[in-house]
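Worked example (supplementary).
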Amino acid sequence: MIQRITLIGAGNLATSLGKAFQKAGLDIVQVYSRTRESASVLASKFGCSYTNKAHEIDLSADLVLLAIKDDAIPGLLEKFDCRRARIAHTAGSVPLELLEKYSDHCGVFYPVQTFSKSRDVNFSDIPVCLEANSSEMLGELKTVAVRISRDVREISSAERKVLHLAAVFACNFVNHFYYLGDKLLSEYGLPFNLLIPLIRETASKITEISPYDAQTGPAMRYDETILNKHLKMLEKRPELTKIYSFVTESIFLAHKKEHE
Amino acid sequence: MIQRITLIGAGNLATSLGKAFQKAGLDIVQVYSRTRESASVLASKFGCSYTNKAHEIDLSADLVLLAIKDDAIPGLLEKFDCRRARIAHTAGSVPLELLEKYSDHCGVFYPVQTFSKSRDVNFSDIPVCLEANSSEMLGELKTVAVRISRDVREISSAERKVLHLAAVFACNFVNHFYYLGDKLLSEYGLPFNLLIPLIRETASKITEISPYDAQTGPAMRYDETILNKHLKMLEKRPELTKIYSFVTESIFLAHKKEHE
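After joint prediction of all chains, the assembly is encoded as:
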């Protein structure tokens, strides 16, 4: 059973995971980060040691958990020998086989969530998607996952890749549209809070109705009068015009059958 | 003070508003709809009369409220004389001046929300944006709005138009991205509920952090490795490739300064 964890990374995800682990009674024994500064800031939260030197990474821990940028993973793993350590990454789009090159006990620990340092997240209902190179390693990762979440699933690298892409649409792109809405309003001196109940209801609706059935608005009805008014308002913004047109077209195509 | 309301329309908005009015103790005296069938279905919910003939619309009501497609408003108003009736529409993108051609007591009653027939909506925190051609009419509309919502605001036609456009981004487009996420997952046999906690947190975050500060993901970091993997997965879908590319570009441009 995994108890002692070395945390690689000091960003949003490392911070949120480390807090959740500690709250669940697990021990963070060390924080590694590229810079001493960021490693020390996060380590001070956990009361543990820290380093920015790969060869000093504490491999005596029960698990070395990587919460760093995808691109940074292979470069870091080249710098120390983790063949015998249990090692897992947390990335949506990195296949397990990358870790197999470096470790005999490797896996993936992917929480489907968005993390910001300034916001504490309740992990209990966040799906934690696991994958491992052996049933023993899978079992070990499960002991960690069930401590923080009630929703632990086994998902392959191919499935995780799709899940990550879907999450980009449903979270990153969605948040950017909140931002574009905010920007449009603020240019007219209107407060963003006008949109909050709408945003909340839109997110809440799809827990009861499928997103397909929940669709409303001028694009779906192909209400040309409104669409043209909106495009006119965006005419000096080629970037927004493109987005408006293509998303509208995509909505219309998805709902076209209803009109035939 | 408005007590008796004639409801024009029998769609999602008319249904939701009528229910909220009745719950708040207001009287729906008649439902008009283009087809007898839909008028009668909604009228039966309110226990009121109904018609599909414009000349039979009950103008003795304290308010005739239009909840129909934007394009249908002028055509309908040509068919009966509402010069002396109090009349208001509920549309985001229709200026008040359109109603001024037909009535001396006109206004706008625009709730910033998305409505589906199958889902009851709690109006209490929904912003209701009012506009009227006189302070008397504005006062009358307020008496109705405060019965169903705690958030009643006065907003001009120009402001409402921007608000409607912002709402299309923050609701209609957002919901379509939930749909695209759902579709991607289902093609791999993955359940949509994997995304629900993420969707909930994304919507919840921006009540505390600005959407700008809440942004996460590969586009913002311009993580080319991930972006290329995602584009590769979408390569047989030109429609999704365009959306992915342009939204990614827009996110990157918005956050570019952070990288410089």
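Two points are worth noting when inspecting this output. Chain B is about 50% helix and 15% strand. The beta strands of chain B are 4-8, 27-32, 49-51, 63-66, 86-89, 105-111, 128-132, 152-154.
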